[in-house]
Amino acid sequence: MHQHTHEKSVATVQRLEDGAIAAAIVVAVIAAGQPWWWLAAAFLVFDLSALGYVGGPVMGARLYNAVHNYTAPAILMVIYAGFMLGGQDLPWLALSAACWAFHVAVDRALGYGLKLNDFAHTHLGRIGRSATAQRGWRCGEACPPAGWHDQLRTAAASSLVPGRSARRLDPT
What we know:
Number of domains: 2
Shape: globular
Strand order of the largest sheet: 1-2
Order of helices and strands: HHHHHEEHH
Strand content: under 5%
Radius of gyration: 21 Å
Largest sheet: 2 strands, antiparallel
Structural class: mainly alpha
Low-confidence stretches: 135-172
Distance between the termini: 29 Å
Number of strands: 2
Helix content: 55-70%
């Protein structure tokens, strides 16, 4: 097995695991009688950490990675458990941890891993337009031609404009 193929299979397993974690969080929130819709309502709040990229790629990656991991949600759950052991139920604390962990799990399941050098390089592989051609292709297989997404987008747009006919994609 090629190293590249092995790395892709490991990333795929991690993405599937995170999808299962996201599903388990939804089930746990519902089973605990908490409002499940908070998982969706709070989802984008954690992406505010991407504002760190205004300070440059290193600052952005550090802030993004500080928010997009399971450490803080786990700490919140330990604090929640401590309060529960002390006789105080703070369900909002558990729900906050669940929302945070759900966000991390969904992001990872979609391939948005911890950032390395810049936003596009993650521990799960490259993301974005430059990675689309690489994703799903094994060593030795024919890869799509460079710029194939732009050709597809142009063809789709031209088929929607009255008076223009859809053109065929150039296979070269």
